[in-house]
Design goal:
Layout lengths: L3 E5 L4 H13 L4 E8 L5 E4 L2 E4 L1 H25 L5 E7 L2 H8 L5 E5 L5 H7 L2 H8 L4 E4 L1
Helix pairs in contact: 1-2, 3-5
Pfam family, one: Usp
Organism: Natronolimnobius baerhuensis
Family: Belongs to the universal stress protein A family.
Length: 141
């Protein structure tokens, strides 16, 4: 059975390390890279739901494309033989990751590297995902 691994990527070094870890420990896996765009006051109401200012939408798409391009580069560098898919989510990162976990066997996520009060006050996406995910989670430092 092929392992299906979800690797959330936000463009950080920690996320890249998580993807490299997934390649190393799951060389034949089907890997899905998920990039989640957090919304912070950039939505506009439209008649049939939520829409985005065209500049905001273009910025989100450009950012996701850059993250996915980097994932493809890391895939080539690692010589990964398995499948690499990309998905973009919009909204709360934790919720988007947990929702995407329904289709995978494992989540490999980078540690955000927060320490002390910042970690206590802000929490951690990785820690929350580890507590709530329906599949095993590997947190990579």
């Amino acid at each position: 059975m092929t392992t299906r691994v979800l690797v959330p990527m936000d463009g950080s070094e920690q996320a890249e390390t998580a993807l490299e870890h997934a390649f190393e420990f799951h060389p034949d896996a089907e890997i899905t890279v998920l990039h989640v765009v957090e919304l912070e006051g950039s939505t506009l109401e439209v008649s049939d739901g939520i829409g985005f200012d065209s500049d905001v939408q273009q910025g989100m798409e450009n950012r996701a494309e850059a993250v996915f391009d980097r994932a493809q580069e890391l895939t080539a560098n690692a010589g990964h033989e398995g499948v690499l898919e990309t998905k973009m989510g919009i909204g709360d990162p934790t919720r988007s990751i947990i929702d995407a976990a329904d289709d995978v066997d494992l989540i490999v996520i980078g540690s955000e590297g927060r320490h002390g009060a910042a970690r206590l006050l802000l929490g951690s996406v990785a820690e929350t995902v580890a507590r709530r995910a329906p599949v095993p989670v590997t947190i990579v430092r």
